[in-house]
Amino acid sequence: MSSNLSPQAPVFTPLTGAIRALAMDAVQQANSGHPGAPMGMAEIAEVLWRRQLRHNPANPHWPDRDRFVLSNGHGSMLIYALLHLTGYDITIDDLKNFRQLHAKTPGHPEFGYTPGVETTTGPLGQGITNAVGFALAEKVLAAEFNKPGHEIVNHHTYVFLGDGCLMEGVSHEACSLAGTLGLGKLIAFWDDNGISIDGHVEGWFTDDTPKRFEAYGWHVIAAVDGHNPEEIEKALLAAKAVTDKPSLICCKTTIGMGAPNKQGSHDCHGAPLGKDEIAAARAHIGWNHAPFEIPDEVYAAWNGKPRGDSFESNWKRRFAAYQAAFPAEAAEFERRVIKNELPANWEATKAAYIASCREKAENIASRKASQNAIAALVPAVPEIFGGSADLAGSNLTFVKGSKGVTRTEGGNYCYYGVREFGMTAIANGIALHGGLVPYTATFLVFSDYARNAIRMAALMKQRQIMVYTHDSIGLGEDGPTHQPVEHIPSLRIIPNLDVWRPADATETAIAWTAAVDRQNGPSLLALSRQNLPTVTQNVADADIAKGGYVLSECAGEAQITFIATGSEIKLALDAQAALAGEGIATRVVSMPCTNVFDRQSAEYKASVLGGCKKRIAIEAAHPDFWRKYVGLHGAVIGIDRFGESAPAGQLFEMFGFTVANVVKTAKALLS
Ligand SMILES: Cc1ncc(C[n+]2csc(CCOP(=O)(O)OP(=O)(O)O)c2C)c(N)n1
Ligand SMILES: [Mg+2]
After folding, report:
1. 37 CB near ligand 1 (under 6 Å)
2. 72 lines ligand 1 (CB under 6 A)
3. Confidence band, pLDDT 50/70/90 cuts, at residue 2
4. Strand ranges for 65-143 from DSSP E
5. Across residues 571-600, what is the average pLDDT?
6. Phi first, then psi: what are they for 542, rounded to 5°?
7. 420 a catalytic residue
8. Contact status, residue 567 vs residue 657, Cβ threshold 8 Å
9. How is the chain split among helix, strand and coil, in percent rounded to 5?
10. DSSP class per residue in 12-59
11. What is the atom index within ligand 1 of the atom nearest the CA of 168?
12. 595-622: per-residue pLDDT in tens?
């Protein structure tokens, strides 16, 4: 429910005039985009960005800067205008190129394209959720690194969000957890304009938002006139003063404020205003300059560099004092937060851990092997930050060195509660913040709940490690609601996501360490509930790390190549032995990560897939994905329907994962 307050028309100033003009002119020039939100939030933006935000346009990467997230990412021209006006490396030409190919000003703000854009937004609800991750990372790092008298981690996370973000369910997941954890340095501004794409929201969004957030344990400042700078600033200062709860500032605004005939209507949400209305708006707001022309005195008033320089140099002085007093901690902070490097002894740690797995050669579930990996890696790589969506005991993600974050204390583990989407998008914020390497966990079947945040991790090239267990019908009695079928293949086709399905403890160790090593994207580990035998005794670590390799060659010319993953590797090996007994030579390829395998050289891939054109893929998942490896002359033993509730052994039998069926399939292919 939006408040009854009607916002007053603002006193239009050149400061906000510049935002409004840039937004309407850039959208007009691109002939697409969203002028309404930037024009409606101009006063809020001016107060935050010019008066309160502690940022440095000359150095967007300064570690203790405040973070800003435009969760209503469709209003991208707002952040581009702010970045340009305050002095980031965004030129007026970049604004003229709004939404054009390879411009620094893409349709929605994209991390990595635009200096000053902290996260990619546009999928509504995820920006505020990333922001919860930023604030959580800040809290955890502050608890870890700050010392009495030395607050080297001390910044706010500010979010702009619209009605759309509040309607999205993920905002509930994230904001509920933010309240529980008391993330006091998170401050959100709600652009309460009563409008979304389909029109006035009364027909579909009548929540009492202030009460909703109070119920989460937030500090709520209701009924602020979002066009009155003094009221906005007063609310912002009140929000900063409350340090044990996140704050929501509810700002009543008029969408498109300043466009005299279109403001207040969904017409200005996502379409150019048109030449006539832009001319009328110019007159209405008193902006008498040509498109993309900003007077020097307006630039001077917006310039954020002098403030930014003093914020950053002040922090540098404080960091130097910290370095002098706590050299080891300062070096660790530099390594993790500033340089984003793994520990100096990482290669040795990794090799020693993999060697220990080989030595033990335990026949354990890959989820258990994953837990062993976490337990070994956490002490050596303290930036690893875990969590599970209420399945720690099933995902096996909590280890001896894990400590849950609470309202009052830091830690290296988050009890995310039953919030798969929220968890995954929060972890994206943690990864983007820097200084932590998040892993998250749930049952593989619930990857669907998290899916758009998985996609965003991949799009933003963020290192998040997804520990997804109970990877097939092998989970047994919980039945088809819990048995993934289509998930593994459908996850493999998300660009820049590495999906691992390891076959034993050593493959699991290599998958885990590859995921930690990977700087430019997420990795997903699909892990078994059931025990798996050791199969990699005679294989080099380096081959496993290639994502696919020949696990078992045959004497003489192979008639068939089996390709399998995870729990089906043993079946392939058994079938190979049975066929050998009948004089049929076959080879077995283990393909724990098709994505990594696909990046190998053409020669290597050909050597693994083999000269013989008859190939059979075996995987307890939807078969279609394997066609690209087995071709039309091959066969796939997979599952193209939902599972059943029964003990796992019976299910594997029923779905044809038996030596007899594999042998039969092979013979049929040869005949
Ligand atoms: C998850 C998701 N669903 C749908 C959309 C498409 N979309 C973009 S903006 C919008 C309406 C947003 O309304 P509001 O946040 O109130 O923005 P305003 O119109 O006030 O600027 C929708 C449905 C989207 N970007 N993300
Ligand atoms: Mg709205």
Report:
1. yes
2. yes
3. low
4. 67-70
5. 98
6. -65, -35
7. yes
8. no
9. 45, 15, 40
10. --HHHHHHHHHHHHHHHHHT-S--HHHHHTHHHHHIIIIII----TT-
11. 1
12. 999 999 999 999 999 877 899 999 999 9
Q: Which of 300, 229, 283 is nearest to 87 (CA)?
A: 300
- pLDDT tens profile 260-271: 999 999 999 999
What burial class does residue 274 get, using C-beta atoms within 10 Å of its C-beta: 0-12 exposed, 13-18 middle, 19+ buried? middle
Q: Which atom of ligand 1 is nearest to the CA of 75?
A: 21
- Rg of the chain taking only CA atoms, in angstroms: 28
Give the whole-angstrom CA distance, residue 377 versus residue 383: 10
Structural contact between residues 5 and 267, judged by C-beta atoms closer than 8 angstroms: no
Phi and psi (nearest 5°) for 234? Answer: -60, -45
Tokens 């010319």 found at: 557
Task: Report d(CA 328, CA 404) in Å as an integer.
Answer: 24
In whole angstroms, what is the distance from residue 199 CA to residue 657 CA? 54
The share of the chain scoring above pLDDT 70, in percent, equals 99
Mutate to test the pocket of ligand 1, among 197, 205, 206, 459 (most ligand atoms within 8 A of CB): 197
Report which residue type is found at 607.
S
Tens of pLDDT, residues 396-416: 999 999 999 999 999 999 999
Atom 13 (ligand 1): residue with closest C-alpha?
196
Report the pLDDT value the prediction gives residue 1, as an integer from 0 to 100. Answer: 57
SS3 147: strand
Burial class of residue 154 in the structure, from the number of CB atoms within 10 Å of its CB (0-12 exposed, 13-18 middle, 19+ buried): middle
Candidate of 2, 34, 74 to mutate for ligand 1, largest count of ligand atoms within 8 Å of Cβ: 74
| pLDDT cut 90: percent of the chain above it | 97
Spatial separation of the C-alpha atoms in residues 22 and 24, rounded to whole Å: 6
CB-ligand 1 contact for 69 (6 Å cutoff): no
Beta bridge partner(s), residue 160: 70, 189
Q: Which ligand is nearest to the CA of 129?
A: 1
pLDDT of residue 294 exceeding 60, the answer is: yes
Query: Residues for the chain: how many in total?
Result: 671
Q: Report the pLDDT value the prediction gives residue 29, as an integer from 0 to 100.
A: 98
Model confidence pTM above 0.90? yes
**Residue 129 pLDDT > 90:** yes
Query: CB of 486 within 8 A of CB of 448?
Result: no
Q: Residue 156: name the closest of 229, 49, 68 by CA.
A: 68
pLDDT tens readout for residues 146-157: 999 999 999 999
How far is residue 604's CA from residue 615's CA, in Å, rounded to a whole number?
17
Cα(24)–Cα(38) distance, integer angstroms: 9
Q: What is the pLDDT of residues 165-199, one digit of tens each?
A: 999 999 999 999 999 999 999 999 999 999 999 99
